[in-house]
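Justification of resources, computational component.

The compute hours requested in this renewal are based largely on the per-chain cost of generating structure records like the one below. Each record pairs the submitted sequence with a full structure-token output. That output is archived, and it is also reused by downstream analysis tasks.
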Amino acid sequence: MTRTITRAVVAAGGAGTKMAPVTRIIPKEMLPVARTPILERLVHELHTAGIRDVLFVISSRKSQIPAYFGSGAAYGMDFSYRVQDDGAGPGAPVLAAETWTQGLPFVLAFGDNLIRAAAEGEAPLRRLVHGGASDCSVLTRLFAADSIPPHETLLGAAHPPRSEPGPYAIDFDKDLLDHTGARWVHACAARWVLGPFIFEALRACPPRPNGELYLIDAVRRWISAGNELRAVPLLPTELRFNCDNWETYADAVATLRT
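The structure output for this chain reads:
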């Protein structure tokens, strides 16, 4: 059974400390890649996936975002904005959006991440949105366990990449949470579909020692309770850039020149 998802929450409140001092005057999400701000590329990605209503969760230091995007009418979409300054971790923007989601499933996208679709075939986010009725789905990237890049958000163990071409999805259960000894792992790729369960899951999840609430911690606890997540791996021809640091941003600029 499929469903229609038209709402997305965009988390864009991070301080961008890894890219200071530039990010003191311009949000990292508004840095240009091939003359187009990172966040505008995400807006087009959302539109292609059928999203029409977007809530940007931003900090009060990022007035440039609503000034640039406005109501969303120019994109054939409806944009709303919510200010959050508590710096309470990547789970906090989700909780801030609870009333706005109206009890409906929604896309969660992290605004400093770019995904380049393959030249042919359905775009990754569209596959995620239209691929079923799971309460929780996420794009992932498969990495060999001995070569995981820094700062990746690990989900758990993965089977080796398939030799057959084309997109696929897997049901990820609690048996895969422990990746000790695994040869391959799933890393989350900054695009989620979440159901209303996530709000109670976040409220029940203890913050980390630094006081921050992490989405991945809540999701892993939910899976360990016997629930299944739908993981949709990116294909080898699909690229993801986590542009929260200068090195990856430079890679994105060099790769996405057009």
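Residues 38-48 form the longest helix (11 residues). The longest strand covers residues 184-194.
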